[in-house]
Amino acid sequence: MSLSDYFADFIATVEPTAWPDSSTLPNVSVIEHAQGALALMPDTPAPDAEAEAEAEATIISAGIHGNETAPIELLGELLAALDAGQLRVGAPVLLILGNRRAIAAGRRYIDTNLNRLFQRDTLTRDDSRFECQRACELMQAVDRFMADVSGPVLHLDMHTAIRDSRYPRFAVEPFSDTATPEFLWQRLADAGMQAGLSQHRHSWTFSHYTRHYHGAQGFTLELGRVAPFGGNDLEPLAPMLDLLRARIAGVTPTASRGAPLVRFEVVDEIMRESEDFRLCFADDIANFTEFAPGSPLVRDGACGERCVTQAPVHVVFPNAHVERGARALLLARPVAQRPVRP
Ligand SMILES: O=C(O)CCC(=O)N[C@@H](CCC(=O)O)C(=O)O
Ligand SMILES: [Zn+2]
């Protein structure tokens, strides 16, 4: 069975799909850590993969939100290249397709937002909601992969945003006590990312999981705007595809040096507290739109109106339709840029 067929079956079938014993990839062990989560472990790592100062193993995930199709198409490109022998596995990689039922239905989620559930001890297998079951499986898959690899790991969890953005491609850095090394930010810039947004507190997303519990480097990557399958412009994502290919091959990416990311940090977040909740600005504003002090942001039946207080803020991921108690928008401010060395 090819990798492409395996993942296509995984989305299409309601029955569990098992990875057959015989792998079609030469010199690579394929291990199914969960349905839709395959580890590719090379018998002999590429020389670069061991020499690199950066993380050698990679977790590549797509489809955590079912309607975010560009990342699924990128994963499809990687699978096709692996199947055709055009891409060799030179470093361990865990390939994950997240929310099978939501992908098949073309929806963000079925029962609840999968990307808020990656927290140990709060989630149990007894919670029958589809995404709760899936989060348990994916956490276990990551734990198993991490037990098999040595050295640092990079997790790239690929998404697309609901709305336009002043920076169409941006990386969200989960909260952590340890800083992301500068060379990794530059790797993302080389891969066509335009901005970086650092979280100010735990958010229990998938990339936060690998970072928080396993000390991996991890990012949520926003790769443009949500579109149906076939409606994505993959051209601006070509440098990202190059980075993913290089990670799998265990080689240093050859991409040209991209402009440094514009860096932001989250300073606050606003939760939806009641059913009676609305945004005080047009529903179609772009991510990173700036609001001046005094501007009203949201009106909530439980908490009243929230306005910008002191300095201007940039609004990211505003969404009045999230579940009650969930994050409805992030407020961010620019981080002073370090001088660029020639
Ligand atoms: O456009 C939106 O409002 C959401 C796009 C998306 O799914 N973003 C991720 C970001 C996760 C993070 O904060 O790291 C999400 O909301 O899960
Ligand atoms: Zn998403």
UniProtKB/TrEMBL annotation:
Enzyme Commission code: 3.5.1.96
Stated name of the protein: Succinylglutamate desuccinylase
GO MF, one term, reads: zinc ion binding
Superkingdom: Bacteria
- Pinpoint the Succinylglutamate desuccinylase/Aspartoacylase catalytic domain residues: 57-242
Read off the SUPFAM superfamilies from this record: Zn-dependent exopeptidases
Q: Which family does it belong to?
A: Belongs to the AspA/AstE family. Succinylglutamate desuccinylase subfamily.
Q: What does this protein do?
A: Transforms N(2)-succinylglutamate into succinate and glutamate.
UniProt keywords (A-Z) are: Arginine metabolism, Hydrolase, Metal-binding, Zinc
User: Where in this chain does the record put each AstE/AspA barrel-sandwich hybrid domain?
Assistant: 260-334
The record's active-site residues are 222
What reaction(s) does this enzyme catalyze?
N-succinyl-L-glutamate + H2O = L-glutamate + succinate
Q: Which species is listed as the source?
A: Kushneria avicenniae
